[in-house]
Specification:
3 domains; alpha/beta; 5-stranded parallel β-sheet; Rossmann fold; 14 helices; Argininosuccinate synthetase, chain A, domain 2
């Protein structure tokens, strides 16, 4: 092999892969790093890659594309995996792998490589993207090949090769961060009965330390897509960053999950998704105001399927395109705003409004109204319960009970008025 393109984050796993690839394949290693909102984690990443032995390091700012084309469609679908997980890592892998493949094809690379372990979900997400976009390129996955078996082994190898890394044997969490969330795994979290240490969290205030005064945040949507915060129209990146600050300030969006990995085992992760939690709550509430019951039910059937699809790395499929087509139709009228009250890790709905609302006070009022004839309900109930009534009549007849099946006549209006 002449050139291998590596999906590079600058973390422990990918940092030690650079010298390992050069040592075992005698090839040029080109790193591809994606800025999807990791913040200062990308500082010095190019220098680190080159110092580790990489020939080049390409860095792409994919934040707006990530939010607009991956996060918002998943939000609009209402996709949540395992009842809690808002898919922060899952959504990020297809866009990173896509950019990696683009670079590989541009420079005529001979292989693709990633730093995913053989126990995790990310290896599937990366490699399904490779298959969809560069099926002719072989894939190198060192974690499935080398004799490094633990974080401790990886740290020892990094020290041997003089590769600088942030992880240590005392603070050995595996973290993944982007503009949507941060995940924490490993260390004491591997015991599902252990309480996450207070210093584990990076995006959200401990609810006990959050402000004593609540804060209301108004989120505006157009056709299911969030477009404003507190009346100010914002682009995708600025909107999510704003909500992250608000939600994080009040301890919103923490989730401690024992999840089912695609490869079959259960794992424990702690997630912080402050802005995303606000968005899911607001979007769901607006849909409840605007969509009819059967459309909501149909969407609720699609949502877990969409979540499975994203979690399992099947982003580049006709299945997702079909779900998106359905979701897009349901979102045509999901325009309006929702007010969420944040207080010490909790959220309550303080208001919702939409010109497309199906809620109409004229129909639901307990006061006098002229738009709903309550007597119509009697015929509706007779038809709605007809099958149950027929079944009951048959059961009575089988017991020899003679029954009359006539309906009671309605009283005359004169007698009712009297």
């Amino acid at each position: 092999m002449k050139t291998i393109v590596l999906a590079y984050s600058g973390g422990l796993d990918t940092s030690i892969i650079v010298p390992w690839l050069r040592e075992h394949y005698d090839a040029r290693v080109v790193c591809v790093a994606a800025d999807i909102g990791q913040g200062d984690e990308l500082e010095g990443v190019r220098e680190k890659a080159l110092a580790s032995g990489a020939a080049e390091c390409h860095i792409a700012d994919l934040r707006e594309e990530f939010v607009r084309d991956y996060i918002f469609p998943t939000l609009r679908a209402g996709a949540i995996y395992g009842r809690k997980y808002l898919l922060g890592t899952s959504m990020a892998r297809p866009i990173i792998a896509k950019r990696q493949v683009e670079v590989a094809l541009e420079i005529g690379a001979d292989a693709l490589a990633h730093g995913c372990t053989g126990k995790g979900n990310d290896q599937v997400r990366f490699e399904l993207t490779y298959m969809a976009m560069a099926p002719h390129l072989p894939v190198i996955a060192p974690w499935r090949m080398w004799d490094i078996r633990s974080r401790e082994d990886a740290l020892a190898y990094a020290a041997e090769k003089n590769v600088p890394v942030a992880a240590t044997t005392t603070k050995i969490y595996s973290r993944d961060r982007n503009i949507w969330h941060i995940s924490h795994e490993g260390g004491v979290l591997e015991d599902p009965n252990s309480v996450p240490p207070k210093d584990l969290f990076m995006l959200s205030t401990d609810p006990a330390d959050a402000p004593d005064q609540h804060e209301d945040v108004v989120i505006g949507f157009e056709k299911g897509t969030p477009v404003s915060v507190n009346g100010k129209r914002l682009g995708p990146v600025a909107l999510l960053e704003t909500l992250n600050k608000i939600g994080g300030r009040h301890g919103i969006g923490r989730a401690d999950i024992v999840e089912d990995r695609l490869v079959g085992m259960k794992s424990r992760g702690v997630y912080e998704t402050p802005g995303g939690t606000l968005l899911y709550t607001a979007h769901s509430e607006l849909e409840q105001l605007v969509l009819d019951r059967r459309t909501l039910a149909a969407k609720d059937l699609i949502a877990p399927r969409y979540a499975d699809l994203v979690y399992e790395g099947r982003w580049w499929t006709t299945e997702r395109e079909s779900y998106d087509a359905f979701v897009n139709v349901t979102q045509e009228r999901v325009t309006g705003s929702v007010t969420i009250r944040c207080w010490k890790g909790n959220m309550t709905i303080a208001g919702r409004e939409s010109a497309e609302a199906l809620y109409d006070e004229r129909f639901v009022t307990f006061g006098e109204d002229d738009v709903y004839a309550q007597s119509d309900a009697a015929g509706f109930i007779r038809l709605y319960g007809l099958s149950a009534r027929v079944r009951a009549l048959k059961d009575l007849e089988a017991k020899g009970v003679k029954v009359e099946t006539k309906s009671l006549p309605a009283p005359s209006l004169e007698k009712v008025k009297a």
